[in-house]
Design brief:
The structure is a homodimer of 205-residue chains. Chain A is an all-alpha fold and 205 residues long. The first copy, chain A, has helices spanning 23-44, 51-57, 62-68, 72-89, 91-97, 100-117, 119-130, 137-157, 166-179, 186-200. The first copy, chain A, binds a DNA duplex (30 and 30 nucleotides) through residues 21-24, 26-27, 30, 48, 50-52, 55, 60-64, 66-67, 70-72.
DNA sequence: GGGAAAAGCGGAGGGGCCTCCGCCAATTCG
DNA sequence: CGAATTGGCGGAGGCCCCTCCGCTTTTCCC
């Protein structure tokens, strides 16, 4: 629709460039307000906060909330996408410091730690992730890209298998988060991540 | 329809022994009716059928449905527990025919095939499984028991690792089902199951 | 057999989710 | 400078979930 300027490659802006439509300013303030309120709400209440409350507290109508964020998951993603992005971005640094297999495990641990602090979020995202089509194509792509980078390096150094689709690893990882979501066993999650790493190691024939 | 022999210890019967309370007969008929209708409904409509419809079609009030099955997941479990049980029970036969690692993969495949035909079910169980406390302790226990049996055998023959908790394998497996639930990639699920098996093979040092 | 008590039934009702549509404010053009 | 147009707002309303409570049916005890 709107012709986005190809300014920064590889970093698609969340919002369409800058003020081309002044009226947007109002809309944008609403949007950011909603995100801020939602962040607070999600942090406080562990799970399902009535969206109506968020709308009211942000001083907008429920209709406006739904225009900006058509589904509950969309709102959640908006709230956490920056944080998730930071995690995805942290992969290269880990790759510089550690061998790929260790880096991958560390990176997964980092991801897991984040997810652990946002159990409420996971509870909400669960449906969206699992039923697939609804949500998070962007975030998920970045996660997969991070994994792919690590896998590629690992393939070169021989510490990780070459014949694994990064997408599969993402799916597996999310699966672990999904199914450990509420069973509250922090070490179990760690063990499962270890298992994933084991699966990704080349079998020395 | 009532095969409940008190034979095997450790296998708690789903229904409390047999007819001690005749009145129960009426109640039981309602219950079974609900299950039958629900089975048909779940098979037909891929996902969320209004529980009210099921109640109406079964000729009972919504209140009765909720008394018998306090949550949606409880109803789903009731519908599929016998089938799931059959899968769990099929493990020993596979163990007789194949080496443990192969048997485990085959068994997982069987489970997966079942889940695949019941995507609607998974969609519903998702919440229950993932948010843990709500549902399916019984069924899950049987699944874990089946896995444990295979793992034990595999440990003896040396084709599977000894240091893995069966519960972890269950969690992992459910995680795969959870996160592949709707992304409709039948082969991907297979690849992920292969990865699990790889993770469970002893690393030949 | 008859009456009391228990067991079970069913639907009304309150709450949240999401959609749809009429109204206001900013923008643009004559 | 004023009027048509467009972008955006907000809440009323329909749907489903689940709970709660008065009513019917069955059983038990004399």
């Amino acid at each position: 629709m709107s012709p986005s300027e190809p300014a920064s490659p590889g970093v698609p802006a969340d919002q369409p460039a800058d003020a081309e439509r002044p009226l947007r300013a109002h809309a944008r303030r609403n949007r950011e307000n909603l995100i801020a309120v939602a962040r607070a709400a999600f942090a406080a209440a562990d799970d399902t906060v009535p969206l109506e409350n968020i709308a009211r507290e942000a001083g907008v109508g429920i209709g406006t909330l739904y225009r900006h964020f058509p589904t509950r998951e969309a709102l959640v993603e908006a709230v956490y996408s920056t944080e998730l992005d930071a995690i995805a971005t942290s992969a290269p640094a880990l790759l510089d410091q550690f061998p790929p297999d260790v880096a991958l495990r560390a990176w997964m641990g980092r991801y897991e730690a984040f997810v652990a602090t946002k159990r409420g979020m996971v509870d909400i995202l669960r449906a969206g992730w699992a039923s697939g089509k609804i949500a998070t194509p962007t975030t998920r792509k970045r996660i997969t890209a991070a994994i792919e980078a690590i896998l590629t390096k690992g393939t070169e150094t021989g510490s990780l298998r070459a014949d694994v689709d990064p997408e599969d690893v993402t799916t597996m990882l999310l699966g672990v988060f999904l199914s450990t979501a509420a069973s509250d066993t922090p070490e179990q999650t760690g063990r499962l991540l270890d298992l994933i790493i084991d699966a990704l190691r080349p079998k020395n024939e």
